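User: Can you predict the 3D structure of DNA repair protein RecO? Sequence below.
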Amino acid sequence: MALDAAFVIHSRPYRETSQLVEVFTREQGRQSLVARGSRQPRSPLKGLLQPFVPLRLTFAGKGELKNLHTAEASAPAIQLKGEALYSGLYLNELLFYLLEAHTPFGEVFDAYQKTLSKLASGVSIEPCLRQFEFYMLDVLGYGVDFTQDAASGADVESQGWYAYQPESGFIALEQAEPGAFFGAHLLALAEHDLIRPEVLVAAKRFSRQALGPYLGGRPLRSRALFIKGKRGNRSE
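Assistant: Sure. Here are the predicted structure tokens for DNA repair protein RecO:
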């Protein structure tokens, strides 16, 4: 099977000289492949099967785990450094855990590639990540309406306070409570207006609460690496 576009989103050693490689392809979605001999010093695959390298692949097999036959770069690697690198790894984990295997998600593939390019260009990272998270929630059917009270159907009031209920939406409160969302911030999120710092904070808090159940409580390695990198920078 030939594919026009793919990215490696996860890999690990397999036996003595091979790898198990998780790829996200535009045409066939997420696929698990065996890259035989790819860890050998002279393997043509050794430098290719890395995150953020646009690839063209051929693979085949009847089961869940298929054999990778060939891989070639279709464009230069997308260069991510520092916080942008950790952010790209975070996107890979979202794809790995949220997307059903063997199901095409062509529009998600395009959004992922565009987000990587934005991160590489030096845009503000937090709004970029929040926009991708919101997009993923909508595509997977987990999105909510920021403009309506999920219980009464009334419009969200800018001066009101609201509690988030997973898989339902926002419910009006009589007064502010710990963890509540301010109505004006919800209305800004509905417009993807992520300029104000306080709205960005609300967006991040919402994303973590909304995505949490679908990540199954798994600890994300990208977050651990980001925190470790931050501590390392402070100690220098």
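The mean pLDDT is 91. The radius of gyration is 20 Å.
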